[in-house]
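Possible regression after last week's pipeline update?

I re-ran a chain I had predicted before the update to compare outputs. Posting the input and the new output here so someone can diff against the archived version. Not blocking, just want to make sure nothing changed silently.
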Amino acid sequence: MYKVIIIDDESAGRKLIKEYIQAHPDYVVLAEANNGVDAVRLINGYKPDLVFLDIQMPGLTGFEVLTHLEEIPQIIFSTAYDEFALQAFEVHAVDYLLKPYTKERFERALDRSFKRNRIDAIRPLTESLLTKDKAYPEKILVKSRNKLITVATSDIIRIEAYGDYSRLITSGETYLSNFGIGELEQKLDPGTFLRVHRSSIINYNRIAEVNKYPNSYEITMINSDKVRVSRGYMKALKKLMY
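New output (post-update):
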């Protein structure tokens, strides 16, 4: 059984989707909304499997809705505007229904909805949130088991290299980022995150203490993790000392 939410600022648009989806008893419409603010509330509350999402709406656009979600479901955009198609597929939407569309076109979109790996399908959205116009993100999407969730960057205690990827350590959980540690260093706020080793970045707002040894430093984080500062990164750490 697939849980569905319909978001469209036009009642006719919502009615048409409900009419078409009635032919598929394994899809259940849980709720609907006509604006972006209610869309965020409903999607975060119900955790649907699939959302039919308009783009130009009061409150928040469809793309802005995505950046406020705790988990990202499968998305089928349904809109009268063709100029957003490229952006929709950049975040790997399942499909882009351009109004007015036929029942046959709707069926093709629905048929595609669960034929792809969910995490792989929305992985580009993770990257788009990290590379938005805003220089340094306050929240990012990261992998947690079989889903993606939002994590506030301020909650990250430290980051460690993990092959071509990175692990983000918070006080309660460890998450996997699709970015390598060098890429994260470039994308996260240097006023908060400090590279102290080729395989380590720390949030210096989460430092508990720093121990100095004859030729090195060891940082203890608030979760008791200990991070060694390599010789090449000592200068950056010393800039924080007064």
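Follow-up from reviewer: compared with the archived run. Residues 136-238 form a domain with the OB fold (Dihydrolipoamide Acetyltransferase, E2P) fold (CATH 2.40.50.1020). Marking as no regression found.
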